[in-house]
Structure formats: C-alpha cells, structure tokens
Design a protein that fits this description.
about 70 residues, alpha+beta, four-stranded antiparallel sheet, about 25% helix, about 20% strand
Length: about 70
C-alpha cells in the first residue's frame, strides 16, 4: 500500500489521473483494476468510481509493492 496527499495542482483531477501523477511507475490499467476492486481509498473511504479529488485529501492505493518498482526483478 502506498499513499499520497493531493496537491493544489492535482485538485479537481480524477483519482486515477492524480494517482498516475503521484506514482508514474504504475500503469493506468493497474489503477483502473484497483478502482474496480475498491482497492483505492480517499480519506479512508473505499471507492469504485473515478471521482475528482480535492487538495489535501489523502489517497491510498492498495496494490502489491512489486508494481511500484520501476524494474521489478
């Protein structure tokens, strides 16, 4: 699991786009699968919709650590 806080520049972006900016090593398909499985939380609440996030919100992405590595072994 990794988390990030939404910045002012990410304010109003959809959660998948904001997470893609925060974790550029992740594929958008991985993020959409996580969304479908409710493995993305915004301020502690699970979501299955690609909703807009607000600055200051905390987003948690519950994916295996191996996906966050640029060159998995």
């Amino acid at each position: 699991m990794r988390k990030f806080t939404v910045t002012k520049s990410q304010d109003g972006l959809h959660v998948v786009k904001a997470a893609g900016q925060a974790f550029p090593e992740l594929k958008s398909s991985d993020l959409f699968h996580a969304l479908k499985r409710k493995d993305i939380r915004i301020d502690g609440k699970k979501t299955d919709k690609d909703i807009a996030v607000k600055a200051g919100s905390e987003v948690e992405v519950w994916l295996p650590d191996s996906l966050f590595e640029k060159n998995p072994q």
